[in-house]
Amino acid sequence: MIANILIFQLLKKNVQHSIFNIQRSIFAILVLIAPVSISYLMKSRATSNQQQAISNIVIVQPNIDPYEKISAGTFENQIQKLVHLSESQIDSNTSLLIWPETALYTANGIEEDKMKENELLNPLWDFLTRHSSITLFTGVESYRVFNTKNSSTSKPMQEAGYFYESYNGSALLNNTSALSYYHKSMLVPGVETLPWFLQFIDKWFEKFGGTTAGYTKQKDRTPLTDAKHGYVIAPAICYESIYGEFMRRYIRNGANIICIITNDGWWGNTPGYKQHMNYARLRAIETRKWVARSANTGISCFIDPSGHVINPQPWNKAAAIKLNQPAIDNYQTFFVKHGDILSKIFTAISILLVLFNIGYWIRKKFG
Fold it and tell me: Is 238 in contact with 101 (CB distance < 8 Å)?
């Protein structure tokens, strides 16, 4: 911002007075170069902290039509496709497997406290038993049952005296159980949440998926810990990854890798899914953490701490990709520690500059 102001003033004087000031020009160039140089030094320090590992992470992109996903009787085929794609890449060194948003989706939902008893999930548990060294991070459309109304989004069940909450969530699973859950916190307006006074238009949003009856949010930014392999996951479902302040709180709380699961297929082959992926690059750069991104219809990829995209999978293609990907230690960037204070500072400075110029114009006009 300072460089822009200096260069503007230099150009203004050059145009108005045909004066070229070498000293001020050099100063403006130095002001422009300085932050870039500092960034490269900080990047070198961050990437030097990487821990090498022989284990690998596998990401699956099943390319399942989102409209077929919610059709009755298709879950068995979908989970078999996920298993088949996974087994095409996993090996004895695979530590973490990632499936996309709502990879586990049944017509009646999946009760979190009874995942092991759910017969539809038997192929999943059989797969994890065959590969007992692997931890699976997957999207899941789930619910929980309560004896009392637990929140404003709790809904009564047909069985009197019980309530339930629905979640667009994710789960960290091993071959024996669900280790932990995360419930999407930044809900899509209209599709996933509506205020009570707009419930009458909920049917209009059905073609975009989700549930307008309302998901329940998670309030805290608690990472999901895979203690066996050392991964502490910052989970992001769908468009949560576009919020830098939101994601950096996971890193502040100890996460060492960002896992993004999404289903961009609702919007078709438009520029939106490309833009969404590029937001993930910003999250990698801000936090200097690896990003593993599993998108149902694309773009699935790995992103290194410098924002470089590795092995991106194209739109509308079923694929599975693998990478030896080390976790990063507890190094935290300025952004992670302090949040987006730079934008707040420079917004305030911009307002002050505008007010100063307005005041200067008033004094010049009427003084």
Answer: yes
- For tokens 């108005």, the residue is 16
Q: Mind giving me the DSSP string for 142-191?
A: EEEEESS--STT-EE-SSTT-EEEEEEEEEEE-SSSEEEEEE--SPPBTT
Residue in this structure with the two tokens 């503007």, named with its chain if needed: 8
Q: Is 50 left (phi over 0), alpha (psi -120 to 50) or beta?
A: beta
Residues in the chain, overall count: 367
Q: Which two tokens stand for residue 278?
A: 């590029």
Q: What is the DSSP string of 245-290?
A: HHHHHHHHTT--EEEEEE-GGGG-SSTHHHHHHHHHHHHHHHHT-E
* Half-sphere exposure (Cβ direction) of 316: Cα atoms closer than 13 Å: 5
How does pLDDT run across 195-246, given as a tens digit for each residue?
Answer: 555 555 555 555 454 444 578 889 999 999 999 999 999 999 999 999 999 9
d(C-alpha 169, C-alpha 171), whole Å: 7
Give which of 335, 129, 155, 316 is closest to 250, Cα–Cα: 335
Q: Using one digit for the tens of pLDDT, what is the confidence trace for 153-204? A: 788 887 778 898 999 999 999 999 999 999 999 887 766 665 555 555 555 5
Higher pLDDT, 31 or 297: 297
Instruction: Provide the token pair at 360.
Output: 């200067």
Residue-by-residue DSSP string for 52-114: P-S-EEEEEE----HHHHTSTT-HHHHHHHHHHHHHTT--TTEEEEE--TTSB--TT-EEGGG
State the pairing for strand pair 56-61/94-98: parallel
Strand partners, 61: 319
Contact 172, 125 (CB under 8 A): no
Whole-prediction pTM value?
A: 0.83
